[in-house]
Amino acid sequence: MQPVIKVSHLSKQFKDFKAVSDLSFTVNQGDVYGFLGQNGAGKSTTIRMLMTLIEPTSGDIELFGMPLKTHRNEILHQVGAVIEKPDVYKYLSAYENIKLFAKLSGVKVTDKLIMDQLEMVGLATRAKDTVKTFSQGMKQRLGIGIALIHNPQLIVLDEPTNGLDPQGIADIRNLILRLSRDMKKTVVVSSHLLNEIEQVATRVLIIDKGKKLIEGNANELFDPAQTIVEIVTTNNAFASQQLTQSSWQQYVQASRNSNIFLKLNRQAIPQLHKDLVNLNIEVISLQPRHSLEDYFLQITSTNQHVQAYTN
Predict the structure, then answer these.
(1) Domain count, the chain
(2) I want to staple 232 with a disulfide (CB 3.0 to 4.6 A). Which of 152, 216, 269, 284 is the partner?
């Protein structure tokens, strides 16, 4: 299966600040791809490069098997995106907004198509109401309806639940699931909320300070039968080398400073103890973390936004 998005060694430098560093990942057709990281991790910068809003410093981006540099217009006709808050006209109605944006996009629409779009995002009963009377969640759903007016194959949503109340978050979550399951769209959704990504994503990428920490299938990452084990050693470089050359290589998730993280069944921990001794790894501590949430908070570089992750 040809990837919908293929990013290779992508970097973005703003003067002395490196927002994205050597980032590579793949989004396959049909994925709900969760792009997870704390605020400032580089998610929005990466998405803006995907949407050609800013240019990469280095690296390559392909969408639908075509280089973004040379096939920009052809690619973007197949993409719908809401970057941060949707840019809608608050003194126009929902119906008028969709009709206007369709015209600007060169899409010919009928009254039925507009109403179908509004029905899809749960706004058909408010079609004639001005957007200034809408909640932030309703504006988000209208923005998604506008992004879908040209029937794109790929939908990109940057922090779509930011600032929403619990009902608004649930509405966006259900809409993402409908786009994937019913409409067979490929969806990329960025968030700093672990719980939200867990409920919608089929695959997940976690980044911190612009660098990839882990990428994998959501079912495996969120499997409650698996335990995150944090190992602290006296020599992390030696320990990492020994583990990657052993049968434990497949379980290693990340290595940071003096900490190594493995994901494995809890029943395997006693054998891990024995093998660490046999590999001459000097262990200061070995601690089960029990959940991806614990792991996520440990491997990101600071824990100052703990509340944001767990809301």
Answers:
(1) 2
(2) 284
